[in-house]
Amino acid sequence: MFTQYAVHHAWFIPLLPAVAFVVIGFFLRRTPVLSAIVAICMSMISFTLALGIGYGVVAQHITVEQPFVERIPWVDIAGLSINMGVYLDPMAAMMLVVVTLVSLLVQIYSIGYMQGDDGFGRFFAYLSLFAAAMLGLIIAVNFVQLFVFWELVGLCSYLLIGYYFHKVSAREAAKKAFMTTRIGDFGLLIGILMLQILFGTVDFAQLTSTVPEYVKEYGTGMLTVVALLIFAGPLAKSGQFPLHVWLPDAMEGPTPVSALIHAATMVVAGVYLVARAFFLYSVLPDVMLTVAWIGGFTACFAATIALTQRDLKRILAYSTVSQLGYMMLALGVGSVTASMFHLMTHAFFKALLFLSAGAVIHGLHNKNDIFEMGGLRHKMPVTFVATAIGVLSISGIPPFSGFFSKDDILLAVSQVSTPLYVIAVVTAFMTAFYMSRMLIVVFFGPENPENSPHEAPVTMMIPLVVLSILSIIGGYIPYAYHFGEWVRFGVATHEGLNFNIALLSTLLSIVAMLLAWLVYGSGKVSPDLLSARFAWLYKLSYHKYYIDELYLWLNHTFVDGLGKVLYWVDINIVDGIVNGLASMMYRLGDELRHWQTGYLQQYGLVLFGAILIMVAYLVLSAPVFVTALWGGAY
Amino acid sequence: MIGLIHYLTVAAVLFVIGVYGILTKRNIVAILMCIELMLNAVNINLVAFSRFMQPDVLTGQAFVVFTITVAAAEVAVGLALVFRVYHDHDTVHIDKLNRMRW
Amino acid sequence: MDELVYNIAFYIFAAITIASAIGVVTKPNLVHSSLLLALCFIGISGLYVLLQADFLAAVQILVYSGAVAILIVLGIMLTQRSSMEDTNQNSGWRRGTALICGCFLVVVLIVIATTPWHYSSALVAQDTPSVIAQLLLTDYMVAFEVAAVLLLGAMIGAIALAKGGKEE
Questions:
Q1: Does the CA dihedral A234-A239-A240-A241 come out positive or negative?
Q2: Helix or strand (DSSP H, E) at A87
Q3: Which residues of chain B have pLDDT under 70?
Q4: H/E segment holding residue A249
Q5: For residue A496, what pLDDT is reported?
Q6: d(Cα C128, Cα A481) in Å, to the nearest integer?
């Protein structure tokens, strides 16, 4: 009965955090305790409702083919009608549970992490707003509602990255994030508009049935353009190459923000959009290929950069970009199941990794460079265990959660494209390597005498524990309980694990971890020697392939260049016309005043001449005179 | 046969000569003289029309009486003005009386 | 025979009028111009006679060449200083003005020539003074009185102007 209530009142789930935002934002900013209480209460109610929906979806047999849809009219004018509403299917239910859970855990964590900060109330207000926006995006019933909440999460990302607004680097990072995602949003908007023009509707349920018939009749040409435009949104929001540049800089925000937004929830909005719009993508093989290659390339590309980074959160950021690439790759080869599965497990272990990183940073009083840390496992044992669980999970070691989801992806890729499979496997190897590198350098080795670390407080440890448990069991349980039958597109592909692929990937991961131990743990192979041998590779990787510099140069040359050209046009042509008119009038007046000679006879002459002209005209045109002068019939 | 047209022609020529004089002469009194020429041309016109169009009702000639009256009055006042100007500026040369300029 | 005399007389008087008018506007000497003006008035008076406006001819000689011309000579004498030569100069725009005036003349002549005039065949009134007097004192009474007032005003104005208004 509760699940029935939850399913029919699913719109409460985004509404409650929104109410929390309003209440905290307007009234409770000065009282940190109350703002935390309000936010966490609302999050808990939302989480409970989400759990209810999760059960309800299973109990009421709400499947992908028969979703639960509820709409209310929002814009209803002649020729255009857009609704807002609730769209529930197993995928949405899963996302609701994951997002509410991670949001709740991050808010509990923030009580400890942000303690003593001046903007405590502001932080919780923004976190609540973000939760409301993300949850609204998940249950969106059409593209327009999704776009509205898409923009809203982008805004929250800007606000939260720039939370430490007195730091220039934070302000710049916030601007960079917003502007880069704006480029993607522009393409997305145009794609949505084209959909509206082509089909007259942007509703997911209606389009699911209309698109295949459209393709049969008109072919795929126009729709390819639309799909690519829509993909621009996820390209920017989910940090695919080449619009990935904002994600690493987004680490300027506080660590709970990084955990919530830039690891577990907001960045996967792009992946969710593609999955939601899969009715469009699945009939366009060229677009799928593009998506797959972009995903695969991003995964590999980001992994190569993560190999040499020194900042703890940067490593995790590039790791996020890489894993998002994996999710896009899975979507591109056609497996919504694998992508969503990896999304779920990634949310757990990446949030876990970020929160433990936050514990480390907090414990060392805001130190970020991993080579200044060392041997922390003695003083911070809980954090160490949590991080280790996260590393094992992301490296795909069985029976941790990452193993199941990553192998699902590898299986799906291997069935479609061998080069992409090779890229994916190589990326998995690199992932294991750099994550182990991070673990070893931070927690093993000699202690840095400058540091005096202390273990995290209780409020920060509870989420770590919960997420660790989820990272361990969060893979096996969905696998055992037929995840692939609920969250899918089209026919369910539940083949089980391919023993060969699983074995290969596990072996490679273990080899990578041993290699990392060899280089960084035992010191048998010196990392400095390696970086000197492959100097230019190291340089490229460390400087992120100079992409930021390239973009800056492009901006300077083209945007500023265009600005200079337009400035010249404005000054010389536009102002030139105006000033030219004015000066022409001045010169005209200056000339004409010489006609006022004061000589009456000249005035009289001009007057008489004018009279002459008028009379002559009248004479020569009057009928009497015309017949007399020129003759003939008039 | 001398008809209306001849008299009108004479009047027209006289009038044009008067206009030419007004626009050309440099002395104010000369300009006044040319104004008189123009008025006389008009008078000839009036009398000619009266003679050829309505010979029994001499309306044109009555009109001419009035024109002559007005012309005489105008000469008197005009010359008074010329004396004034001569008194103030010590010249009747029109080029020197050009204060209405820029 | 009458017709011939009439035509010759017309041409003579027309020639006198026009020639002296041209002289008025071309002669550089101002006194010459004024005397030629008087001659022009006399020529016009002759034309009036030919038009059987005898009263007007007399009035013309009396008023115009007897008063107006003398007044003008008076004005000349009172406003010149030294030599009378070259006091009536012509401006530098003679040619342009002549051109425009010529064009105007042409236009007017065209109008005159092409208008269909309706000649009346009534008899000319013989006793012009009485007819004019009747018109003046009955039909155009108001204009008559106004003209009288105008003359009075002109007289007073001329006296006031010539005297110098505010010097009392």
A1: positive
A2: strand A80-88
A3: 100-102
A4: helix A246-249
A5: 66
A6: 138
Show Cβ contacts of residue C123 under 8 Å, excluding neighbours closer than 6 positions: B55, B56
Rounded CA separation A265/A492 (Å): 25
Structure tokens at A605: 């002459």
Distance between first and last Cα of chain C: 66
Question: Which one of 3.40.50.2000, 1.10.287.3510, 3.40.50.720, 3.40.1000.70 gives the CATH number of domain B4-96?
Answer: 1.10.287.3510
**Cross-chain residue pair A598–B101, CB shorter than 8 Å:** yes
Measured between beta carbons, the chain A residues lying within 8 angstroms of C96 are: 605
One DSSP character per residue, C14-26 reads HHHHHHHHHHHHH
CA distance A390 to A98: 17
- Tokens matching residue A28: 């409770």
Place of tokens 């506007």: C25
Angle value at C-alpha B15, between B13 and B16, nearest 5 degrees: 65
The answer on C78 and C159 residing in a single domain is no
> Which residue type sits at A483?
F
Tally of helices (H runs) and strands (E runs) in chain C: 7, 0
Task: State how far the Cα of B31 lies from the Cα of B16, in Å rounded to an integer.
Answer: 14
pLDDT of residue A628: 67
Q: What is the pLDDT of residues A267-287, one digit of tens each?
A: 889 999 999 999 999 888 899
User: Are B100 and A598 a contacting pair at CB < 8 A?
Assistant: yes
Residues 6+ apart with CB under 8 A from A471: A345, A348, A349, A352, A389, A390, A393, A400, A401, A402
Q: How far apart are CA A529 and CA A517, in angstroms?
A: 16
Rg over alpha carbons for chain A, rounded to the nearest Å, is: 33
Domain for residue C55, yes or no? Answer: yes
- B-chain CB neighbours of A596 within 8 Å are 100-102
Q: How far is CA A585 from CA A168, A579, B101, in A?
A: 51, 10, 20
Cα C138 from chain centroid (whole Å)? 27
Domain ranges of chain B: 4-96
Interface partners of A (3+ CB pairs, < 8 Å)? B, C
Report CA-CA distances (Å) from A168 to A173, A176, A369: 9, 12, 20
Phi, psi dihedrals of residue B27, rounded to the nearest 5°? -105, 135
Share of chain A above pLDDT 70, in %: 97
pLDDT in tens, A110-122: 998 888 888 889 9
Q: Are strands A80-88 and A68-77 parallel, antiparallel or unpaired?
A: antiparallel
Which CATH number goes with the domain that contains C30? 1.20.120.1200
The predicted model scores a pTM of 0.70
Question: 């409301």: which residue's tokens?
Answer: A132
- Containing structural domain, residue C69: 1-88
Q: Which of A615, A627, A634 to mutate to test the interface with C (most CBs of C within 10 A)?
A: A615
* C18 and C76 belong to one structural domain: yes
- Which residue from C100, C110, C116 is facing A629, i.e. has the nearest CB? C110
Does the pLDDT at position A633 exceed 70?
no
Query: Two tokens at A118?
Result: 């001046």
Q: What is the per-residue pLDDT for C10?
A: 95
How many distinct structural domains can be found in chain C?
2
Q: Subunits that touch chain C (at least 3 Cβ pairs < 8 angstroms)? A: A, B
pLDDT at A488 over 90: no
Is it the case that residue C168 has pLDDT exceeding 60?
no
Burial class (CB in 10 A: 0-12, 13-18, 19+), C18: middle
Report the b/e string of A320-338 with b at 16+ CB within 10 A: bbbbbbbbbbbbbbbbbbb
Statement: residue C105 has pLDDT above 80? yes
User: What mean pLDDT value characterizes chain A?
Assistant: 88
Segment A607-629 shows an average pLDDT of 82
CA–CA gap between residue A503 and residue A326 (Å, rounded): 19
* Closest by CA position to A299, among listed A413, A163, A193, A202: A413
Residues of C in contact with A619 (CB under 8 A): 107, 110-111
